[in-house]
Amino acid sequence: MILLTKNFIQRFLSKFLPVCALALIYSFTCFAQKPIKDLKPTVILVSLDGFRYDYLEKFQPGILNELAKKGVRAKWLIPSFPTKTFPNHYTIATGLYPENHGIIENNIFDFGAVFSLDKRAELQNPRWWLGEPIWVTTEKQGQRAAAYFFPGTEAAIQTIRPSFFREYNGRVPNNLRVDSILSRLDLPFEERPTFFTLYFSDPDDAGHEFSPDTEETRYAVLNVDDVVKRLVDGLKKRKVFGKVNLIIVSDHGMAAVNRNNSILVDDIFDTGKAEKILWTGEIVQIFPKQGEEATIIKALQSKIRHASCWRKSEIPARFHYQASGRIAPIICSADEGWILTNRKRFDEWKERDELDGLRGAHGYDNNLESMRAIFIGHGAAFKKGFISEPFENIHIYNLMCKILGLTPAKNDGDFEKIKTLLKN
What we know:
Elements lengths: L5 H27 L10 E6 L6 H5 L2 H9 L1 E3 L2 E2 L6 H10 L3 H4 L6 E3 L2 E3 L4 H4 L10 H7 L4 E4 L25 H12 L9 E6 L1 H9 L4 H23 L7 E5 L5 E4 L3 E3 L9 E6 L3 E6 L4 H11 L3 E5 L18 E5 L4 E3 L1 H9 L6 E4 L13 E4 L7 E3 L2 E2 L3 H9 L20
Parallel strand pairs: 1-7, 1-8, 2-18, 3-19, 6-7, 10-15
Antiparallel strand pairs: 2-17, 4-5, 8-17, 9-16, 11-12, 12-14, 13-14
């Protein structure tokens, strides 16, 4: 016979009652989560910025590999040139090459102004965003869209924004982003969106800071895997996991770079002959002063190493990078692992002892293995256990339209090249 002393009972209650209370709260929460029984065809587009195609094997993210195994996976997704964040996100959204949707780089010169990621007013100005993104197509055709971050969703493109959207703030916790999207699924039938976006920057942030093949990048990949698991668990609680169509993509891959591999462009030509230069490490846009184009291109093409410089009309056709009036008269593109910069910035890196050590970069030739992205599809519309050949990201817009029963706007994609992903 066990004698329960007063002290023992007090210790037992103080230790286990909080645990029991939490368990009861959790069980009531699960019980209170109502199954969704009236779901329309639905797409959740999840972007994992900078998630290189080989991270699935290299870092073994559990839920992402499970979705890829049980649904559809492309051997890799081919990004558009340049392999930058904003151009490729907007290509995925519109089915247009950057030369046709206008977001030709993360930095753009037009209207006598510069569009860049740190200029909120320009990001929200619809004059930059050409074409018709999937959330506008959705809203125009009588369905609703909800965006928790995705380039372009803050602007009233064709005067239309998603029914639910939020201005980008990278400090918003990833779990909150997921929970917000799940809460929109809980809306009544008439109010519930059929198209959703989610965006996570963790792999890109870590890849830039530490380089792609590091423990830090591995942890970032596993972190977003946990977030995707939270989304999947939320769909399972609502009894719609197999019904909702998850499309998980990345915009580009990541290459290792060392700042000692810098190309000092202003040592090669007189930058005073340019009206404007837009600098990024992998692609430089040069707008010559009147009458100076020939002088600048001659100096660049005769002296530059580890990069290619072209007149706009000479840019290789496979890049689909000539049609836009926003593309500079002269474009320089660095070779993989090299950085295009200027003397001032290089000297600042040197002074801060930031030249040595590997980092990560993207923006290079979209045919490079290091720039390859991912595509995973899972849900009612997709085949099971299917691996597709690589395809260009221009085709994803038509795929989403097909699933949602929408008529696509004019675009550069071809549904015939991607229809094998879907069930017959």
